[in-house]
Design brief:
Number of helices: 5
CATH topology: Nucleoside Triphosphate Pyrophosphohydrolase
InterPro entries: NUDIX_hydrolase-like_dom_sf (IPR015797), NUDIX_hydrolase_dom (IPR000086)
Largest sheet: 4 strands, mixed
Pfam families: NUDIX
Protein name: Dihydroneopterin triphosphate pyrophosphatase
CATH superfamily: Nucleoside Triphosphate Pyrophosphohydrolase
Distance between the termini: 45 Å
Order of helices and strands: EEEEHEHEEEEHHH
Strand order of the largest sheet: 4-1-8-7
GO molecular function: catalytic activity
Domain Nudix hydrolase: 4-169
CATH class: Alpha Beta
């Protein structure tokens, strides 16, 4: 069965702690390639925020949810989220209002339409507790690690990912 072509619009989600440690995940299809959470829109109508929430959950098991403010209701909602290992509030996911346009790596070109050579990537940051459980999608990722943001940027194979990670202090300070 032929898969539909990927939409050349994606998200990059820099998952980080308050101390600017960054979660990196290693690609299963390219061992040694470390990155933040990335993924393309499933449909042209999917909002980038929806793409970010979906990709974070698919790739790390971390559910981003609009949690109620009342503590008793929050624990009730948390108990309803059983298919994932952890959850964080939707307010922790910040759209950095930043996008990168880059050439699609030749190794992944076959996933896109014949005349598609560039992708537009929208950048988000997600603040999480350092001890949050991470459950990788085994067909997509082999391993994960937490690194201080500068070290994480150095470890990324993608230049746009590294640049986003290096901007982390600016977005954490300026936008919470």
């Amino acid at each position: 069965m032929n898969r539909p072509y990927k939409i050349p619009e994606s998200v990059l989600v820099v998952i980080h702690t308050a101390k600017l440690e960054v979660l990196l995940i290693e690609r299963a299809d390219r061992p040694g390639f470390w990155q933040s959470v990335t993924g393309s829109k499933d449909s042209v109508d999917e909002l980038f925020l929806e793409t970010a929430v979906r990709e974070v959950e698919e790739e790390t098991g971390i559910a981003v949810r609009n949690l109620p403010e009342e503590p008793e209701r929050a624990s009730e909602v948390a108990s309803e989220i059983t298919s994932v290992s952890a959850h964080v509030a939707l307010e922790n996911l910040k759209d950095w209002q930043l996008s990168n346009v880059y050439d699609i790596y030749p190794v992944w070109q076959h996933r896109y339409g014949p005349d598609v050579t560039r992708n537009t990537e929208h950048v988000f940051g997600l603040l999480v507790p350092r001890d949050i459980p991470v459950v990788l999608a085994p067909r997509e990722h082999l391993n994960f690690m937490w690194l201080p943001y500068r070290e994480a940027a150095d470890k990324c194979f993608s230049a746009s990912n590294a640049e986003a990670i290096l901007m982390l202090p600016k977005y954490v300070d300026a936008k919470g």
